[in-house]
Amino acid sequence: MTILKLTLLLFIFPTVLFAQQSISGKVTDHNGGALPSVSVGILNTSISQTTAEDGTFTLNNVPEGEHQLVAYFVGYQKSVTTIQVKEGEDLSLSLILKEDTRELQQVEILGVEEESYNNSYTFSATRTGTLIKDVPQSISTVTKELMIDQQAYYLSDVVRNVAGVSQYTIYNDFAVRGYRNQDGQLVNGLKTAFNSWTQPIIGLYERVEVIKGPASALFANANPGGTINFVTKKPLTTQQGSATVSAGSFNTYRANVDVTGPLTNNKKLLYRLNAGYQSSDTFRDNSGGESYYVAPSISFVPSDKTRFNVDMVYMKNNTILDRGKPNYQGSKDLNQTPINLSTSQPGDRLNNDNLYITFSWNQKITDWLSFNSSYLMFRSESDLAEHRTNGKYITPSVLEMRYVEREEYKNSDNITNYFVSKFNTGQVKHTVMVGMDYSEKVYDKNERQARGEAQGVPNFDLDNPQYGNSNPADYYFDPKRSIHMRTTAYTKNYTTGFYIQEQLNYKKLNVLVGLRQEFYKDVRLDNGNQVTKEQSALLPRFGVTYELTNTINLYGTYTEGFEPQDFGMNAEQNGGPFDPKKSNMWETGIKGDFFDGRLSATTSVYWITVNNILVQDPNDIDRLIQRGQEQSKGFELEVNGQVTKNLSLTTNYAFNNAIITESDNPDEIGKQKENAPQHQAGFWAKYDFLEGSLRGFGVGFGGQYVGERNTNTPDLILDDYLLWDAAVYYTFKNFRISANLKNITDERYYVGGYNYDRVFPGAPRNFTIGLTYKF
């Protein structure tokens, strides 16, 4: 009897002492319509449920006390309600979710007010405004908040935070999952014509996205490893602004301003202005220069059904083209020459101007149908004069040189128009997109070259480098190496695509199916005659996402890519004609949102196969050859966001086995691709003190590891390297002081390279101190 009483006491006493209550309710939209499948839960507990078809929910075993009740669903703003639970009393309440403008606009027209290392939405990956965790493909994002904390200025400062992306050279030239990406960048999901020699300045962008794998099903000819997309800062409905000045190593000075707000009282007309400037000597001889950008943006929202946005960006770089550090022929000790050594001469120049304008229009026709249109005009001009190596050694320490003068013009125009229809058939939700796009790119150049001492260009002696002894006026310019007074475009290409995409949702299952028919036309001027070549491709895309829990999704995808070899590369004098590059990718992984959506994580496993790759002929630097096949297999992990209100974090790791599988050169088969590290890792963490005597202070710390890499020269391998960075911040009233120290251990390293006469050293230890005022 005593044992029975004791047993009853053990069961009854905790139940009485810790009485549990229930919370029930209904979730609706602003029109009173029931919202099924909404995630409802108690913050910082495991108590959660999704709403039924009629929008109702019940949460059981809720302890007494004050709690935060959270409700969120795709296309609606997250609701956070403070509730007071009393002992023995059940709660019944109603929740109304407001529509999320980010989902509604589909093309990004209004700015993002949230400030975090984590970005939950993507517009470019599906063109329909979708949660990243619901997209069956790996998508990496670096937000403006992380860029600000790291005092980043160029794209290379940003991609170090992305798994599987590395520098191929110091130019606008990166490797994504092992594949070189020189001409596949987007702005707001539209194709650009950025100059290959200067990296984009990133202070005017809201975020930088990397859509991993071939994205040709949406963006036509795209890089097989991944596509980099820049999202410009859009106007906000609240008046705010910031101004920053900074100074640092190598006589570097920067200033930028960001101002936004409404132009009318009804907030239907909004503006934003970003502008920035930098002057720097850099750590390289005969290098440095200045750059600046001006980026105004206007959004007009006359009604909840019609939205317009216009972005204009002018970006200028006045610098010198750095062709890398020369080294002794055949010497694997790259440190025998100093990292500042350059073959550039006084008087060399690279002046590059980029001007582009984006127009976006989103029209809601009915409750279930909308129309979206975007247009991008991009103009790029550059004026180049450079001394560089000619790819030949006279002796192991003396290099033959060449001098090049070139004017380049890159123009691109592209437009995309598509309809999006959202409707239900029973319990199945559909988002169908049908559209077409058209792009036109023009490349033109005037050029002349002089090579070697026979044409007046002095050799370069590594043991006794001479600067200022070169006079282009005395050079003989070879007519065979020069292109003069072109009045017709050197190359033109036109791409027309028709595509259809279905995003289907049934309970916990999401399916994405897409198909694109692409027509590509190339036009080249050949000895005064116009030569035309046409190509086409049918490009499928298929993906599945399954909701394992309310916060974790499992996904898998298959997609194909297509890249025509344009006539600029395809010309006979370059070794052409060549077959188009074709690719496909299989990928699977897990995506999750944690800590009430503040932290996101993605793990992915992929297999990419690419055929018909162009590489430089090792026996002739002016010609190309076509490699049969390459494969990239790997694993990636990324985590971004806030662990606590004090701690922000981004971390990444990538294993990438990118090897040559088919080649006319049997010695290449099985080798790791050029400038494709097998291992990469990085992290950055920031901790803010929000209370106590250290309130206002913050500290940041991070590291980056890049494994060893092959180059175009088979026996030249670049060593791996590990860099450490740190930062300290202090915020008081509207001011913020920040100090960043990069490469703390003063590591000597190389971010990429071609051969012995051209490797690209990374910056030694350097610092930046900045002051920001918010108003």
From TrEMBL:
Keyword annotations: Cell outer membrane, Ion transport, Iron, Iron transport, Membrane, Receptor, Signal, TonB box, Transmembrane, Transmembrane beta strand, Transport
Domain TonB-dependent receptor plug: 133-227
Ranges for domain TonB-dependent receptor-like beta-barrel: 303-744
A GO MF term: siderophore uptake transmembrane transporter activity
GO cellular component, one term: cell outer membrane
Signal peptide stretch: 1-19
Location in the cell: Cell outer membrane
Similarity comment: Belongs to the TonB-dependent receptor family.
Listed name of the protein: TonB-dependent receptor
